[in-house]
Each structure stands twice: as structure tokens, then as C-alpha cells.
Write a structure and sequence with these properties.
CATH topology of the largest domain: UDP-n-acetylglucosamine1-carboxyvinyl-transferase, Chain
Strand content: 25-35%
Number of strands: 25
Number of domains: 2
Mean pLDDT: 94
Structural class: alpha+beta
Strand order of the largest sheet: 22-23-1-24-25
CATH architecture of the largest domain: Alpha-beta prism
Radius of gyration: 22 Å
Helix content: 25-40%
Number of helices: 13
Largest sheet: 5 strands, mixed
Length: 431
């Protein structure tokens, strides 16, 4: 068992390079199933979710190998298996993208329900609504496996999503790329990784228009050629380091980013008094020059403030005098981490969708745990600000989505290390 140990109280400074986007990678890798030739995906983050989805494709007959640290070669041409129901599939949320990709290729699919972070109900009714519109019948087997098939092939249709859903938008895109005729998705999600997925598919010969708007039009094609494609930088990883720099009152240059993707985060930091300077592919955060002010945030679908940066911002707001309010409008149960912050001395109360933070009283080191991926990042930020040595458990959540996080924080001046335990005893430590 691994734990992260952080001795807090040091301002971050220096430069950090952002990895490829986790949320783009876990959609684009399954999308490669649709390709009729081998392809190479570059700027792949070295995280456990990528390793897991690559292993799932291998188990289904695809040839998958890393050609270098951040590139993945995928040859799906010998795949003949439309079933993805192994325990590996249940280990990650994004495994449901296999449904759309397998339907697009084989016109039928059998996929285990997804796992991943546990912070709320994950209905897939909008996914199924889209599949049904395309002529697919679906059935839940033993409460654990979705079976989907179509006797006549996939046919284009208009789908109006009742709620904005990233997962449903992606799954309908994947299943309709090779469908006969035109598919229109209305009230579609607009996140950057949806645009990235559309760009990947279009580079292979798909015909997708409108990605990044609330209406996406897909005209089916018969063949997708192999390409080499580089995925976008990770906006949530970038937002995490931006928030950490502000929380520690540091100065950090964040490189390999698309500043436009970070507009909502930058706006809130500026509102708090942080200096945010944008460059072509970098952003400089300077929170060292003046006291920060409290603020309120409400999570919203893109281009609003991302729910995946909400826990990190909560840690930041505990360091700012005054009462700040977070309104979580995306997930029902994303405040599980609050009890861990309270363990460190934070003054926070939760009332339904609202978290009321009375900041400025200081944080004290304590043994805490990551309750999900982004909550783990929030614990790291809180530990960087706390007095004393904080021990963070459940590190496996953090490595799902952050490449080299300990090394990156260490390079910014943090006093941080990973410690391995066996049978309750400390056996080794790595910087």
C-alpha cells in the first residue's frame, strides 16, 4: 500500500509541464476500435486509467503497445470480440465508451457497467436513449452487463439529450460514425475532449460537424483510415496546479496547455486577486503579491466552472479569510472529501448542493484519504498548505488521473514523497 507524505508550508515556484488529457485519452483509445487500420495516439498520459483501457483492448484482440513514453500504437484490425465484461472493465468509469465503439464496429456489444470514482449515481439512460434512436435494443443482464444489438444495422437519427451528458454525447458519436445516414445530437455536451474526439475521428475520415456546440451532426462513413494523432493537454491537471499555486501563495508557470480551455478557472482566480498571465501555450500564476479574496463558485457543464476542479478549489478557499460558497450542480454526492478537510481543521458545512466554507483559520496536518480522483488532488493541495506532515492514503485514486504528480510537485519545491507500506510497516520511500 502506498501513501503520499507532504510536509506543508512551502510556496510552490517554478515550471510544470502538463500531460495529455485523461478524459480525451479514455475516449480516443476506445474510439480506435472503429479504425480499419493501425493508428498511433501521441501525448498519451502515463496514468493507470490509460494502462487499464489499453489492457482491455488487448484482451479483446487488439495489438496495443507503447512506442515511447507518451505514444500508443493500436492495431484493432484483428479484433473479433464484441464483449468487454472482465473485472478490468468494472475498474474504470470510462469503460462505457466501449459500448458505443463496439456497436459502431460490430453492430452489437456486451459491456460491464462501469466503476471508477464513487461520488454519485451514474445513470446511463441518455446513452441508451441514443442507442435506441439508432435502432439498437438494449438489455441489462443480472444488473451488471449491458447487452446491445441491432438486427438491421445502425441508422442515423435525431437525438435530444434531456440533460447535458458528456458520456452520452461521446457514446452516441462513437456508435453513429459508421451508421447509415445522418445522426444529429441536440443539447450535446461541449467539453474540449469531445472536440478532441471529433477531431481524431475526422482525421481518420469521419464526417462530424459542430463538436464544441450544442448541436453535433454526424454523417456515417464506411471506412476509417489509420492516422497519427496527438491529444490535447489536460485542462483539469492544469487547473489543479493553478489552484495549488494560488493556495500556497506561489508563482508557477504552467506549460503545454490551451489557455482558452481554462477560462472559467482563470476568471475565478483573477476574481480572488491572483495574477493570471496567459501566453500562447502556457499560463503564469502569481499569488504572492497581495492577500486573496473569498469567492463563490457554481459547477456547470463546459464552458462553466468544471466539477472536476471543485474539490481542489475547496482546499484553496479554506486558506482565504471569509465565507465562500460552492454550489455543486453536476454530481449529487461529490462532497465526500469534506470530512477529510474537516479532519485537517477546515471549517466547512454542507447543506444539500452547497458547501459553506469559513476560510482563513489555517489547516493542520492529519492522516487523510483520497475519496476519489479529484478529492485526492484536493487533499494534496490542503496538505501543501497545512502545518506539519500530512499522510494521504488511497493513492490509487490519484494515479488514475495525474501523471508523475509527486515528482511534479517536488520539482515545484514541495516537500513530498511516496511511502510504501507492507503489513502496516514502512518498507520503502521514493521521492
Amino acid at each position: 500500500m502506498e501513501k503520499i507524505i507532504i510536509n506543508g508550508g512551502k510556496s510552490l515556484s517554478g515550471e510544470v509541464e502538463i500531460s495529455g488529457a485523461k478524459n480525451a485519452a479514455v475516449a480516443i483509445i476506445p474510439a480506435s476500435i472503429l479504425c480499419d487500420e493501425p493508428c498511433i495516439i501521441e501525448n498519451i498520459p502515463n496514468i493507470s486509467d490509460v494502462t487499464l483501457i489499453a489492457k482491455i483492448l488487448q484482451d479483446m484482440g487488439a495489438a496495443v503497445k507503447r512506442t515511447n513514453k507518451d505514444s500508443l500504437y493500436i492495431d484493432p484490425t484483428k479484433m473479433n470480440n464484441n464483449k468487454a465484461a472482465s473485472p478490468l472493465v468494472r475498474g474504470m468509469r470510462a469503460s462505457y465508451y466501449l459500448l458505443g465503439a463496439l456497436l459502431g464496429r460490430f453492430k452489437c456489444a456486451s459491456v460491464a457497467l462501469p466503476g471508477g470514482c464513487n461520488f454519485g449515481v451514474r445513470p446511463i439512460d441518455q446513452h441508451l436513449k441514443g442507442f435506441n434512436a439508432l435502432g439498437v435494443s438494449t438489455e441489462l443482464i443480472n444488473g451488471a452487463i449491458i447487452e446491445a444489438k441491432t438486427p438491421y444495422g445502425l441508422r442515423g437519427a435525431s437525438v435530444y439529450l434531456d440533460v447535458v451528458s458528456v458520456g452520452a454525447t461521446i457514446n452516441i458519436m462513437l456508435s453513429s460514425v459508421k451508421a447509415e445516414g445522418q445522426t444529429i445530437i441536440e443539447n450535446a455536451a461541449k467539453e474540449p475532449h469531445i472536440v478532441d474526439l471529433a477531431n481524431f475521428l475526422n482525421s481518420m475520415g469521419a464526417n462530424i460537424r459542430g463538436a464544441g456546440t450544442d448541436v453535433i451532426k454526424i454523417r456515417g462513413v464506411r471506412y476509417l483510415r489509420g492516422v497519427t494523432y496527438s491529444i490535447i493537454p489536460d485542462q483539469i491537471e492544469a487547473g489543479t496546479y493553478m489552484t495549488a499555486a494560488a493556495a500556497t501563495r506561489g508563482t508557477v508557470l504552467i506549460k503545454n496547455i490551451i489557455p482558452k480551455h481554462l477560462d472559467s478557472i482563470s476568471a475565478k482566480l483573477r476574481e480572488m486577486g491572483v495574477e493570471v498571465e496567459e501566453h500562447d501555450e502556457a499560463i503564469n500564476i502569481d499569488a504572492s503579491k497581495r492577500p486573496l479574496r473569498k469567492c463563490n463558485i457554481k459547477t456547470m457543464p463546459h464552458p462553466g466552472f468544471p466539477t472536476d476542479c471543485q474539490p481542489q478549489f475547496a482546499s484553496l478557499l479554506t486558506t482565504v479569510p471569509g465565507i465562500s460558497i460552492i454550489n455543486e450542480s453536476v454530481w449529487d454526492n461529490r462532497y465526500q472529501y469534506i470530512s477529510e478537510l474537516i479532519r485537517m481543521g477546515a471549517r466547512i458545512s454542507v447543506e444539500g448542493k452547497l458547501a459553506i466554507i469559513e476560510g482563513g483559520y489555517g489547516l493542520t496536518a492529519a492522516p487523510v484519504k483520497a475519496t476519489d480522483l479529484r478529492a485526492g488532488a484536493a487533499m494534496m493541495i490542503a496538505a501543501l498548505c497545512a502545518s506539519g506532515s500530512t499522510e494521504i492514503a488511497n493513492v490509487e485514486y490519484i494515479v488514475r488521473g495525474y501523471e508523475g504528480v509527486v515528482e511534479k510537485f517536488k520539482n515545484l519545491g514541495a516537500d513530498i514523497k511516496t511511502v510504501c507500506y507492507f503489513d502496516g510497516e514502512n518498507t520503502s520511500a521514493t521521492a
